[in-house]
């Protein structure tokens, strides 16, 4: 998980402060030394670290102390504020042209995730009932045009291409004309990247920019490359006046330094982050929520938004009623598992819950989507009657289910046992709830 080790170190530091009734200057100094080391280790740009620590120290020492907070909590609040500020303060939304279509140019080095994120962005726009057009201007990388066309087909978003024999500037210009005559409100231009920045590439991008006058030039950078990402961002920004960054591969094994440095070094806001290879693995970037995740306070808002977008509300209500009446079956359980899977990879979801990385054993627990798949396979190998009435499942049926799902009889036993306990708990809760209702009614 991104920021995992940074988050752990900062939280350990703050846990030591939290309990203290009074903070001495040396307590603050010691804490700041640890914050500094933690940030440097997370690969945050050293100048950014220096400024950051200085700001926090100044505020922490010479400060009005809020009455509702202990001094320790107060330092945490300052760090939280400053982290948020460092990443841009508030959410930076897409610039929209007041004369549609809004043209968005996607730029970046090869392999950063430009084409993938052109698709992801189109999907987000589509969800908002917009009509994007994708324009294929990467004529150099073999298969880039095809990749965009496949994405377009998958999303049912049209892709404008003139093959690889026409100049990218011409393709961009014609693409824009096409969008205007077909009533598209967004034009997403996928441009070429190189393995390294070079002048020819920059010239071409400058020419495309001039030809289509984009409202938004989004630089796509790979967070895994750490400080290199920050340098790349600076160079692109100097030539093109980039309007926003998309930081990709934040799901990978990155220490997160780029996320914390890019805005401060280039002055360009991060607008989105990419969190996986799938087409919906993209999130609008909220500096405050990210700071909260880093400090172990979770990001419940993003989790709720994800849940609202991907969970079927009617089903959820139905489930709630069944749980209340304790007639929850294995069939419902299966349904629920597939809904949880829709939210995204489990470890990302858990990372959004407050304090989750502090729950004993959670850090090392390999929460693994495969486990869900195994449970699903077992339930799917049961007959509908068995799913409703697990008592039917005797030993010969257990053998059959194990065989059908490719699991062992022990696996099946374990699942049935867990389910039985779950049902017991629900019965207890529903009994309690009914009693409480009864009491209320008498009043
Ligand atoms: P381009 O050369 O900049 O257009 O890069 P692509 O869009 O082709 O992406 C390069 C590789 O990175 C592909 O294998 C993508 O699946 C992968 N990729 C892109 N974005 C992400 C992301 O957010 N997370 C992960 N894990 N992989 C990504």
Which features does this protein show?
single chain, 443 residues, alpha/beta, Four Helix Bundle (Hemerythrin (Met), subunit A), Rossmann fold, 434 Repressor (Amino-terminal Domain), 3 domains, 8 strands, 57% helix, flat, binds guanosine-5'-diphosphate
Going by CATH, the architecture of the largest domain would be 3-Layer(aba) Sandwich
What is bound: which ligands?
A: guanosine-5'-diphosphate
Per DSSP, the total helix count is: 19
Task: Show unreliable segments.
Answer: 359-365
Oligomeric nature of the chains: single chain
Number of domain modules = 3
Coarse shape: flat
Largest beta-sheet details = 8 strands, mixed
Q: Determine the fraction of residues in helical runs and give it as a percent range.
A: 55-70%
| Number of distinct beta strands | 8
Element-by-element helix/strand order: HHHHEHEHEHEHEHEHEEHHHHHHHHH
Q: Structural class of the secondary structure composition?
A: alpha/beta
CATH topology of the largest domain, which one?
Rossmann fold
CATH level 1 class label of the largest domain: Alpha Beta
Radius of gyration: 26 Å
- Biggest sheet, strands in spatial order? 3-2-4-1-5-6-7-8
């Amino acid at each position: 998980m991104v920021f995992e080790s940074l988050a752990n170190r900062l939280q350990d530091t703050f846990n030591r402060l939290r309990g203290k009734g009074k903070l001495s200057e040396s307590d603050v100094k010691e804490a700041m030394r640890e914050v500094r080391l933690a940030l440097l280790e997370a690969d945050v740009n050293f100048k950014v670290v220096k400024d950051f620590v200085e700001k926090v120290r100044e505020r922490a020492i010479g400060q009005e102390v809020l009455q509702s907070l202990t001094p320790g909590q107060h330092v945490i609040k300052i760090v939280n504020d400053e982290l948020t500020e460092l990443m841009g303060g508030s959410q930076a939304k897409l610039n929209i042209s007041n004369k549609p279509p809004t043209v968005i140019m996607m730029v970046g080095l090869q392999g950063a995730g430009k084409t993938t994120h052109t698709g992801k962005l189109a999907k987000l726009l589509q969800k908002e009932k917009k009509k994007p057009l994708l324009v294929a201007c990467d004529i150099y990388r073999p298969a880039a045009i095809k990749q965009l066309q496949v994405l377009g087909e998958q999303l049912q978003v049209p892709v404008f291409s003139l093959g690889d024999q026409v100049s990218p500037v011409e393709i961009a210009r014609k693409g824009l004309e096409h969008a205007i005559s077909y009533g598209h409100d967004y034009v997403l231009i996928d441009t070429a990247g190189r393995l390294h920045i070079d002048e020819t590439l920059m010239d071409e991008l400058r020419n495309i920019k001039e030809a289509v006058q984009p409202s938004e030039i989004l630089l796509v950078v790979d967070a895994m490359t750490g400080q290199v990402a920050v340098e790349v961002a600076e160079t692109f920004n100097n030539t093109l006046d980039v309007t926003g960054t998309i930081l990709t591969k934040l799901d990978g094994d990155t220490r997160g330094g780029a996320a914390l440095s890019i805005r401060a070094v280039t002055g360009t806001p991060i607008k989105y982050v990419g969190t996986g290879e799938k087409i919906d693995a993209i999130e609008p970037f909220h500096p405050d929520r990210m700071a909260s995740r880093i400090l172990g306070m979770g990001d419940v808002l993003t989790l709720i938004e994800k849940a609202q977008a991907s969970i079927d509300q009617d089903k959820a209500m139905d489930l709630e009623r069944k749980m209340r009446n304790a007639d929850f079956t294995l069939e419902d359980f299966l349904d629920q598992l597939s809904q949880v899977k829709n939210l995204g990879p489990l470890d990302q979801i858990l990372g959004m819950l407050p304090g989750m990385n502090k729950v004993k054993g959670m850090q090392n627990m390999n929460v693994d989507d495969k486990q869900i798949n195994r449970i699903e396979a077992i339930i799917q190998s049961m007959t509908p009657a068995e799913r409703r009435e697990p008592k039917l499942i005797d030993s010969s049926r257990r053998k059959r289910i194990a065989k059908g799902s490719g699991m062992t009889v022990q696996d099946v036993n374990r699942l049935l046992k867990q389910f039985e306990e779950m049902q017991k708990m629900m019965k207890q809760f529903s009994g309690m709830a009914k009693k409480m209702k009864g009491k209320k009614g008498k009043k």
